Amino acid sequence: MSELRPRPTGPDALIDALETALGAAALLRDPAEMAPYLADQRGWFTGRAPVVVSPASTAEVSTVLRLASEAGVTVVPQGGNTGLVGGSIPDESGGSIVLSLRRMNRVREVDPVDFTITVEAGCVLAEVQTAAREAGLLFPLSLAAEGSCRIGGNLATNAGGTAVLRYGNTRDLVLGLEVVLADGRIWEGLRRLRKDNTGYKLAQLFVGSEGTLGVITAAVLRLFPMPREVRTALLALRDPRDAGVVLEALRSATGDAVTSFEYMNRASVELALEQVAGNVDPFDRPHDHYLLVELSSARQGAGLLEALESVLAPILEDGGVVDAVLAQSGPQAEALWRIRETIPEAQRLAGAGLKHDVSVPLSRLPELLERGAPAMLAEVPGALVVAFGHFGDGNVHFNLNQPPGMGRAAFMARREAVEHAIYELVAELEGSFGAEHGIGRVKRAYLTRYRPAVEVEAMRRLKRALDPAGILNPGVML
Amino acid sequence: MSELRPRPTGPDALIDALETALGAAALLRDPAEMAPYLADQRGWFTGRAPVVVSPASTAEVSTVLRLASEAGVTVVPQGGNTGLVGGSIPDESGGSIVLSLRRMNRVREVDPVDFTITVEAGCVLAEVQTAAREAGLLFPLSLAAEGSCRIGGNLATNAGGTAVLRYGNTRDLVLGLEVVLADGRIWEGLRRLRKDNTGYKLAQLFVGSEGTLGVITAAVLRLFPMPREVRTALLALRDPRDAGVVLEALRSATGDAVTSFEYMNRASVELALEQVAGNVDPFDRPHDHYLLVELSSARQGAGLLEALESVLAPILEDGGVVDAVLAQSGPQAEALWRIRETIPEAQRLAGAGLKHDVSVPLSRLPELLERGAPAMLAEVPGALVVAFGHFGDGNVHFNLNQPPGMGRAAFMARREAVEHAIYELVAELEGSFGAEHGIGRVKRAYLTRYRPAVEVEAMRRLKRALDPAGILNPGVML
User: Which candidate, A118, B77, B147, B176, has a CA 20 to 30 Å from the CA of B155?
Assistant: First the structure.
């Protein structure tokens, strides 16, 4: 063909091409049908898009990205859309299409000898857990949204959760990835090797890149022996400074079997007890600080209860731990966990909230808790400091709820001032303004404020190297 | 100044500038003094360089790289120079300078609450282990060269070793890095956070990049509770197919306390017994396959011996494990480990060897062992197949020693044919031709042969993004 035809560009031409390539059933264009894909769960972000496309295979994802690249149209990859930083929502320009991975939801393989599971990006996290369990093994990633978040999103955001202390973040559970690059090329990196030193670790670059470097379509993930003994306890502390000692003693006494080590301040527990039906205070009086501890072992008869008691006895005596409840059954353990897990819901029911997902070195966490509350309250006197999270990882959700006498709008108008107060303190303590929720659209400005210029510039170079045309998730992270 | 002077370029101008900036004491120019920095331990590579420069601080490393970039001179970073793939040796052109990190050897901090240690790149691995131990904690990276390799090299090559099964590869032990980029800029990424989702994980890109993307000058590394109970056993197997079952049973029975799970074939044990004085066969007759198992726990009285016996009893009865020796003391355990650790030395004493550091999914390892030996022997009939390594990681050193009647040169001339035979099989079994030793200069051609073109191209783009002038470690990896 000698005739030169300009390649059709722009969203309309792209939609025609997508419909031809994938069929009409893969496309949503009706505003009502698209709505759930264009807004985040908290209602902070509502974007626009000409189409939501849901490919059913890696080849189709490749087609979508190739066509989008050719048309010069940007693409917002989306998993379960449960993120808290607006990273999976298109902006209001309407210039980006949404690429939902929800139809790529097969568990491709479970291998009990290799301790691996191979899953597609659209698998709901709970389905991955179940598939592992059915093979007698544990997939340890566990977080509040596990019933609706999808593993591709967990990977793209390097999700954390309640078992990081023992099993690591999502990135630590990854052996291999399959990724479609911005131009549609497929990287077949689904290796399931424990050791592979053949070049740069691309998989680790894609994990946590929030869909800005490539679209993860499948992953090989690590599995673990299923816990056979689990012990759960709620401890009451006078001073969070004693928590580090408790953790260290428990790690040694149990042979590193501490799976969760969660912190809750008094306000967060009281909110959960007041706002959520069915929660019951296991103690006879309120305490200032609580630790929810879970020990687990694949070994039947691991003696975890004895280890726990041996650690607690001297600390209870000398007053570091004021009181303790050991769950005597599965339901009792669940009741303790339910207090911890319903805090976000309780917070929502109690009014507007400002959330700060921060981390510091473990040794600085007591100081953060001590100084962070007055720093935030100086900006909004009378507000409720709701602090809870993953003490063992140095990660606390250091939130603020609107004070009784203050309207929602007036409270939310204080957002930047409160964030400034807490993030400056976190920076002073050598911490991170984004521990597990990521950057997304919410925290982009903080990246340049709190990270070295050299680091941000290196990130920009990597982005340009892998997505030179800027097709993937514009406006997110960088 | 309005006068335009061309910036002096080339090695001679650079050496003058380095001497001015760092002082003559930081430079080696005498051929005899430089020799140890220009050849690898095995004697496979001897390069040339106009100077070996040894900066004493991060600022000095920065100066070296800035000056080298300005002069357009390439730089070969070097740690303990114990690598096996020629990755720290300059080529024969004499156009690169060697940048030795040996003078940057301070342990900056040990924090027992955070379970972290902050070290400079030039620390010898054994010194890092010792510093952790003195704080009552464990730094678990352990490998044959630990008395002379330096942690910067371990990081640059993502070193493996004998405790990967339990604690992961070097990259899994890294929390933060300090890196000097090719142009001399310093990335201050020494964060010691367990959770930090603020952008791409640069640290994971530098780890394992073999000095081609930046020069690691310091690191924050994870520590663990010190093991208080350690049990060591040597098992004799009829068929390596039974090893997977033993490993799975041990992981469950001990609560995931299997630290090492090392394989040795009969030839490797016999070599160690014959060639190295002091090694004693703990069994009364030879066996075809051996597993060296180490269990460890931070818990005093963890009952590991009981767990081990409970796993072995039924397997010994039904014949999967033919015989077993449980070490009854520290010295007995050391004697068992010594057999395993002296195999490389024994192999060297026994003549010329061809080494293949390969990995496959754990489930395919028995097939690799079964089919790999005849595949290599078809290329060199009568050679000795010396197979040993990290079974639990799917990683075996599948080596070949020269046959009695064959000269060294004739044997070494078969190198490519033997590599072809074993690497093709490894590829068929979805494995890696470089498990823990890296690419360096030796395996560069295999990267393009066995890794997808998309992956290699992405690596090239990342290299150009971070080292656009190609200053760092030319000819290594890519």
Answer: A118
CA-CA-CA-CA torsion sign (A451, A453, A458, A461): positive
pLDDT category of residue A1 using cuts at 50, 70 and 90: very low
DSSP conformation class of B227: P
Partners of A385 in the β-ladder:
A400
A vs B, Cβ pairs < 8 A, gives 281
Question: Averaged over A263-281, what is the pLDDT?
Answer: 98
Read off the pTM: 0.96
Interface touch B395/A466, C-beta < 8 Å: no
CB A304, CB A219: distance < 8 Å: no
- Give the residue from A137, A198, A259 with the most B CB atoms within 10 Å of its CB, the best one to mutate: A198
Q: Evaluate whether A210 touches A476 at the Cβ level (below 8 Å).
A: yes
Question: For B323-347, b where at least 16 C-beta lie within 10 A, e where not — what string?
Answer: ebbbbeeeeebebbbebbbbbbebb
Instruction: Give CA angle at A86 (A187, A450), nearest 5°.
Output: 90
Tens digits of residue pLDDT in A392-431: 999 999 999 999 999 999 999 999 999 999 999 999 999 9
Is the pLDDT reported for residue B2 higher than 80?
no
How many other C-beta atoms are found inside a 10 Å radius of the C-beta of residue B91?
Answer: 18
Cβ atoms of residues B124 and B79 within 8 Å: no
ipTM: 0.96
CB atoms within 10 A of CB A460: 13
3-class DSSP state of B177:
strand
Locus of tokens 């990683």? B395
Structure confidence at residue A8 as a pLDDT band (50, 70, 90):
low
Quick one: closest CA in A to B206, which residue?
A200
Of B172, B307, B459, the CB nearest to A200: B459
> Searching chain B, which residue's CA lies closest to the CA of residue A247?
B113
Cα(A96)–Cα(A473) distance, integer angstroms: 8
User: How many other C-beta atoms lie within 10 A of the C-beta of residue A404?
Assistant: 9
User: Distance between CA atoms of B478 and B473, rounded to whole angstroms?
Assistant: 10
Q: Do A195 and B115 touch (CB under 8 A)?
A: no
CB nearest to A157's CB, from B160, B197, B299: B197
Look up tokens 């879970």; give the residue. A294
* Out of B113, B195, B298, closest to residue A252 by CB: B298
Whether B292 and B234 have beta carbons less than 8 Å apart is answered as yes
How sure is the predictor about B6, in pLDDT bands with cuts at 50, 70 and 90? low
Map tokens 């301790």 to a residue.
Answer: A115
Which uninterrupted H or E stretch holds A167?
Answer: helix A164-167
Residues A360/A394, Cβ–Cβ less than 8 Å: yes
φ, ψ of residue A290 to 5 degrees: the values are -130, 150
Which of A463, A478, A396, A387 minimizes the C-alpha distance to A433? A396
pLDDT of residue B128: 98
Substitution target from A169, A185, A200 for chain B, most B beta carbons within 10 A: A200
CA distances from A464 to B81, B102, B324, B454, B458 (A): 34, 35, 57, 16, 11
Nearest C-alpha of chain B: how many angstroms from A452? Answer: 7
pLDDT digits (tens, 9 = 90+) for B51-76: 999 999 999 999 999 999 999 999 99
B431 Cβ contact partners less than 8 Å away, ≥ 6 residues apart: A193, B358, B359, B360, B361, B364, B368, B394
pLDDT tens-digit map of B399-435: 999 999 999 999 999 999 999 999 999 999 999 999 9
Contact assessment for residue B298 and residue B230, using Cβ atoms and an 8 Å cutoff = no
* B158 contacts A197? CB cut-off 8 A: yes
Q: In this complex, which of B202, B251, B454 lies closest to A455 when CB atoms are compared?
A: B202
